[in-house]
C-alpha cells in the first residue's frame, strides 16, 4: 500500500501541474486574443500566433476565425485543464488516510460524468461550426472508456464505503 501512496502522490502533483499549465495557456490565449497584446498575424490575418510574453516568438498557432478559436483552440485547452484537475482529485483519493469516503466517491463521480458527458456535448455543438477530424472520434471513445472505468470504480468505492460503515457500527 505504501507504493500506491507514493505513486498516487506523484501522479497527483503531476496532473495538478498539468491542469495549471493548461488553464494558464487557455487564460493567456483569451487575454492575447481579446487585447491583441503578444499576438501576431500571418498571411494577411488568416492565421494568428500567440507569442511568449514580452516577445515576438510564437508559442501557439491557429486559424484566425471564431469557430476555430472557440472549438479547436480554446475548448481543448480549457477542457484538458479541467480533465487534469479532476484527474488530480482522483489520484488524491489514494493517498488519504481513509480510502473509502463520501468525498472520494464524489470526486470519482465528477470525473466519470465529465468524461462521459462533456466531450460528447462539445463535439455535438462543434459539429455545426467546424469540420471534425477522425482523431476527434478516437478521443471521444477514449474518454468514454475512461468514464465507464471511473463509473465502475465509483461503484466499488460506494460498496466499500457501505461495508466500512457497517464495520464501524459493529465496533
Automatic annotation (TrEMBL):
Membrane-spanning ranges: 12-31, 68-91, 111-130, 136-157
Domain of life of the native organism: Bacteria
Q: Which UniProt keywords apply?
A: Membrane, Transmembrane, Transmembrane helix
What protein name does the entry list?
Answer: DUF2975 domain-containing protein
Organism annotation: Flavobacterium phragmitis
Amino acid at each position: 500500500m505504501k507504493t500506491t501512496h507514493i505513486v498516487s502522490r506523484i501522479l497527483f502533483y503531476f496532473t495538478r501541474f498539468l491542469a495549471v499549465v493548461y488553464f494558464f495557456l487557455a487564460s493567456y490565449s483569451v487575454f492575447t486574443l481579446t487585447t491583441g497584446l503578444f499576438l501576431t498575424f500571418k498571411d494577411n490575418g488568416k492565421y494568428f500566433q500567440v507569442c511568449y510574453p514580452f516577445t515576438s516568438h510564437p508559442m501557439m498557432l491557429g486559424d484566425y476565425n471564431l469557430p476555430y478559436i472557440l472549438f479547436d483552440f480554446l475548448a481543448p485547452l480549457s477542457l484538458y485543464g479541467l480533465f487534469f484537475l479532476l484527474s488530480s482529485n482522483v489520484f488524491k483519493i489514494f493517498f488519504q488516510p481513509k480510502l473509502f469516503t463520501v468525498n472520494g466517491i464524489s470526486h470519482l463521480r465528477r470525473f466519470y460524468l465529465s468524461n462521459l458527458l462533456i466531450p460528447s456535448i462539445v463535439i455535438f455543438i462543434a459539429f455545426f461550426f467546424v469540420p471534425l477530424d477522425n482523431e476527434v472520434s478516437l478521443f471521444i471513445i477514449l474518454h468514454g472508456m475512461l468514464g465507464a472505468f471511473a463509473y465502475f470504480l465509483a461503484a466499488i468505492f460506494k460498496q466499500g464505503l457501505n461495508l466500512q460503515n457497517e464495520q464501524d457500527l459493529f465496533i
